[in-house]
Amino acid sequence: NPVISNGKPYPIRVRLGEETRRSLETIENTVFNSSSGHTASLGSLATVTQLPPQNEIRRENLQRLVVVTARLEGTDLGTAVQRVRQRVAAMHLSSSVRVVYGGTYEEQQKSFAELSRVLVMSLVLVFGVLLSEFRNFAAPTAILTSSVLSIAGVVGALLLTGTTFNVSSFMGLIMVIGIVAKNGILLLDADERYRAEGADARTAMLHAAQRRLRPILMTALAAITGMLPLALALGQGSQMLQPLAIAVIGGLLISMLLSLVVTPVVYFLLTRNQERSHTPDPELWSDEKPALREASIRSE
Q1: Position 274 confidence tier, pLDDT thresholds 50, 70, 90
Q2: Which long-range contacts (C-beta less than 8 Å, at least 24 apart) are formed by 278-285?
Q3: How many CA atoms lie within 13 A of 236 on its CB side?
Q4: Which candidate in 10, 33, 162, 198 could, as Cys together with 280 as Cys, close a disulfide (CB 3.0–4.6 Å)?
Q5: Pairwise CA distance, residues 290 & 284, whole Å
Q6: Mean pLDDT of the residues in the chain
Q7: Helices (H), ranges, 162-200
């Protein structure tokens, strides 16, 4: 323990004389006197062993520094660091010992923090673009609800395939946000056009979903098919982008359902009380004619 003098701590280390530390035997035979007057040798009080000396002693900011590195096999970086943290916590180190996890793990955490900011920024930008296009808060809210829920598909795909959540899969998640938003635009744009023709909220949404079902499915399936070779790691160097492809495929699979169910339901609930632009044509929107006349949409 340090000795405090004039308000400053001074570390003090006591070392035996040169003649008493020439060998392990002389160290073990060193006699100590207790405060009660009893004597005992060091060998009777402790086990003395000799350890190999360090080649060098590294210091940083006047503090002793020990760097521990490892090569991982059969496990990912996040799992390995978590196990190391558990082992270190079980050691109950002194408060004077500070453990810092750096290297590749530190760079990974910095990348995750930066990508998290990019994800939030992308959501804000998408919301702004949708707001300027639809000029109401209902459409952006409905579309982004599906976009955020599609993250469940990304996580599910990574879990099913045993793929780690890394920088590459994080980039795939950001891509899914944009693709799902595009599907929502296709659906709600048709809904707005049908409402402009005089349809009520329920009828317009049903016909919009029927009309945009095929384009949404074709877009998602085409993107999934294009990502399959990368997801299967076919080709040299494709393993680096494999998590990205798996994340995109998982997000697109669930987005097909979200775009056709969650987006219209949320938008319908937010706009069902809005007044129609003009009186609907009974012949055009009659239940006896479920198929809309193409002439009503030719103005596109």
Answers
A1: low
A2: 278/198, 279/198, 280/197, 280/198, 280/199, 280/200, 281/197, 281/198, 284/197, 284/198, 285/197, 285/198, 285/199, 285/203
A3: 0
A4: 198
A5: 9
A6: 80
A7: 167-196
Contact assessment for residue 233 and residue 163, using Cβ atoms and an 8 Å cutoff:
no
Q: How far, in Å, are 65, 111, 231 from residue 237 at the CA level?
A: 37, 21, 12
- Which pLDDT score is estimated for 54? 67
Q: Spell out the SS3 assignment of 124-153.
A: HHHHHHHHHHHCCCHHHHHHHHHHHHCHHH
Half-sphere exposure of 179 (CA within 13 A, CB side): 30
pLDDT tens-digit readout, 181-194: 888 888 888 888 88
Token output for 30 = 């060193």
User: Is 45 exposed, middle or buried, given 0-12, 13-18 or 19+ CB atoms closer than 10 A?
Assistant: exposed
User: Where do the domains of the chain lie, and which CATH numbers do they carry?
Assistant: 106-296 (1.20.1640.10)
Can you tell me the distance from the alpha carbon of 295 to that of 204, in angstroms, rounded to the nearest whole number? 16
